[in-house]
Amino acid sequence: MRESTWVSLLLLLLLPAPQWGGPQDGRREPEPEAEHGPLQPFDLLYASGVAAYYSGDYERAVRDLEAALRSHRRRLDIRTRCARHCAARRPLVQPGSGPGAELPFFRALLARASCSRSCQSQRLGGPASRHRVSEDVRSDFQRRVPYNYLQRAYIKLNQLEKAMEAAHTFFMANPEHMEMQQNIEDYRETAGVEAIQLVDREARPHMESYNAGVKHYEADDFEAAIKYFEQALREYYNEDVACRALCEGPQRFEEYEYLGYKGGLYEAIADHYMQVLVCQHECVRELATRPGRLSPIENFLPLHYDYLQFAYYRVGEYVKALECAKAYLMFHPDDEDVLDNVDYYESLLDDSIDPESIEAREDLTAFVKRHNLESELIKSAAEGLGFLYSEPNYWISYGERQDENRVPLGVNTEGAEVHGLSMGKKSLPKIGRDLREGGPLLYENITFVYNSEQLNGTQRVLLDNVLSEEQCRELHSVASGIMLVGDGYRGKTSPHTPNEKFEGATVLKALKFGYEGRVPLKSARLFYDISEKARKIVESYFMLNSTLYFSYTHMVCRTALSGQQDRRNDLSHPIHADNCLLDPEANECWKEPPAYTFRDYSALLYMNDDFEGGEFIFTEIDAKTVTASIKPKCGRMISFSSGGENPHGVKAVTRGQRCAVALWFTLDPLYREVERIQADEVIAILDQEQHGKHGLNINPRDEL
Ligand SMILES: *[C@@H]1O[C@H](CO)[C@@H](O)[C@H](O)[C@H]1NC(C)=O
Ligand SMILES: *[C@@H]1O[C@H](CO)[C@@H](O)[C@H](O)[C@H]1NC(C)=O
Ligand SMILES: *[C@@H]1O[C@H](CO)[C@@H](O)[C@H](O)[C@H]1NC(C)=O
């Protein structure tokens, strides 16, 4: 019976506890939302929705949660509009010279402030300060937690499609949440809505259009590709305005809080302004970052112009192709392929057009100009005010350009080639690739245990002594150190099972903690170093021809909760595949989003064995028949290809704590985890400033 199946699945999922007080904390209730009345603050609506959820009033939970989401969205919109409006209405002016010369500037500044204030309070129907919310609530909205409550509430009301939408929206920003993926499949089946296109209610238009552009481009439909990329660019620049407006919100002066902040006029302005400016400068990363990810898509904005130059060329619009190619060169002036293209496009122009007169596109020129001015300003301020800043490479582009799409032109072009981009064409399914194994293990002490055959599958390997006892202890203590201090997972039950606690830390976070002296820096670096060691071994053992890149690295500990271990029949981590959605009934693994389709190899590196249960298992595609079982221990590493050929899971941990470093790799440089680059940046800073303690250059919006 379906109903009981998904009801029990729902029970498996523990709701995160509301962090700002439960149902009975006596907060005032928000008035029901009036169409034209003042906007209700979203934190009040959210609290009320969650309280209603726990009291079993699902209609009200849905009403208030939906209202909270609307209010949240509307507030962002109001801030953006007001920032735009006041920037236009109240321009800042240059100070003159002589006594009182600064007054016109400050007059303009004050006028801007009062414009912003009256604009916002008018549209919000009350003072903007009413809408300031705690960090926790902000972070919940950023992580889309309200959708987690919503999906359950909709289920209780038997509104399956809405539940599915909410679940999908949550899952897009929390892709590690395997259970949600299962829910979506279950809802789909229960509702019999096979064909329904899952809607991400928080989709960011510029990314949607970009993806649509890529899709059409890959299908050689260049007219449509142009339409979508152009739309993506318009949306990108709009989003950029919104992102920058949000940066103009209140700032925190954490470092000074305990001292009682007492900056003088110029210091206080400088402190605040620098935070705003750095935040705005970082919008480049923010806009290129997919929901739920720490790291941006590499080279995101330039890629728009790269695709466009080729697409315009293909539809015969050579002037536009040139404008876009030249725009791309503003980011990467030495890109030979695009330089060639420029020459070639110029040769195609009508004689009446002077090639020199065609410049890089205006939208981008203005953007880059401002971006460069900001860089300069931040760098010189850093020097003058004594903080540490190293400019990230925002347009970094790794690996070779994908040139499978080289298009040899027709007869009259004397062998000219035009270079476009191709991303999708090479990612053949695993089966299509030449599978090999048995390459050198590179490091002297590693012992080979089992190959694929001995592990009863394909592309699997088990190795021992990848870490020494001492390294295991050291890593384990990093794990404990970080988890003691706590992060988003602290004290929470596992996303996979309510009978265990689940805690994790990324390399970047470990380094940050090391930098702050909360865990030994040397140990944090060990985490960074051993993940690189693992990467090299996997790349070598499976004899991969191209570079294997990090896709995600995560240290995870699962701790059995005492008193909840009797007659457990659930797994610590349900059976799944890493790059496709396992569909045991159909004997298929669907390689499509929201699975991480770009992951190619996975590895787990263990650091302890003082726990019960927690075996790693491979199964058949039926997700039931166990084909191999591995007991973790210090220094043991299991690695395998990430596809449907390797469904796997973790058996229940019934006593103690099981810690491991989970690593996912990709062969596609486009999906290389840029968090790794940030970690590299941190390492560079550490080397540079071994003994000092300075501000860390990390995007403040990263969820560290
Ligand atoms: C890897 O490279 C070797 C020699 O360079 C080549 O023979 C082989 O076909 C390549 N394998 C794959 C999977 O591309
Ligand atoms: C291999 O093991 C020996 C003895 O335990 C140790 O001294 C050496 O550093 C190890 N080598 C590596 C590369 O870990
Ligand atoms: C592989 O399968 C055989 C036969 O079922 C089994 O005895 C063996 O333990 C399996 N290998 C592993 C590593 O679990």
From TrEMBL:
Question: For this protein, what is the EC number?
Answer: 1.14.11.7
> What PROSITE patterns would the database entry show?
FE2OG_OXY
Q: Which GO terms describe its molecular function?
A: iron ion binding; L-ascorbic acid binding; procollagen-proline 3-dioxygenase activity
Q: Which residues form a coiled coil?
A: none
Q: Which domain of life is it from?
A: Eukaryota
InterPro entries reported in the protein's UniProt record: Leprecan_dom, Oxoglu/Fe-dep_dioxygenase_dom, P3H, Pro_4_hyd_alph, Pro_4_hyd_alph_FE2OG_OXY, TPR-like_helical_dom_sf, TPR_rpt
Any one Gene Ontology biological process term? Answer: collagen metabolic process
Q: What class of enzyme is it?
A: oxidoreductase
What are the residue boundaries of the Fe2OG dioxygenase domain, all occurrences included?
553-667
The secretion signal range is: 1-21
Catalysed reaction(s) here are: L-prolyl-[collagen] + 2-oxoglutarate + O2 = trans-3-hydroxy-L-prolyl-[collagen] + succinate + CO2
Q: Does the keyword Cell membrane apply?
A: no
Q: Which UniProt keywords apply?
A: Dioxygenase, Endoplasmic reticulum, Glycoprotein, Iron, Metal-binding, Oxidoreductase, Repeat, Signal, TPR repeat, Vitamin C
Q: Which GO terms describe its cellular component?
A: basement membrane; cytosol; endoplasmic reticulum; Golgi apparatus; nucleoplasm
Q: Which family does it belong to?
A: Belongs to the leprecan family.
Protein's recorded name: procollagen-proline 3-dioxygenase
- Origin organism is Cricetulus griseus (Chinese hamster)
